[in-house]
Amino acid sequence: MFRNNGSTPATAGNNALIEEKALPSLTISQVAENAKVDVPLNIALAATERIYVCIATAVAAGWKVTPINGGDL
Questions:
Q1: pLDDT digits (tens, 9 = 90+) for 11-64
Q2: Pairing state between β 15-17 and 50-52
Q3: Contact status, residue 65 vs residue 50, Cβ threshold 8 Å
Q4: DSSP labels for 13-72?
Q5: Cα separation, 24 vs 36, whole angstroms
Q6: Which residues on neighbouring strands pair with residue 51, listed in sequence order?
């Protein structure tokens, strides 16, 4: 997960690594529950900043990222 300053994420200097997670391998199943990974981020972002999430290795079953906004503090 990277914190981006609001400019292009293709420029390395616009991004700062804030979290890394090792994800378990998944096998598609209609009866078994897949693993869930929660990553709480207790940070404040400026209006122009963004969080980017990427996966470094291809996966067969896939992962989905669902952000939950905590709102203004």
A1: 999 999 999 988 887 777 778 777 788 888 888 889 999 999 988 887 777 778
A2: unpaired
A3: no
A4: GGEEE----PPPP----SSSPPP-----------TT-EEE---SS--SS-----------
A5: 9
A6: 3
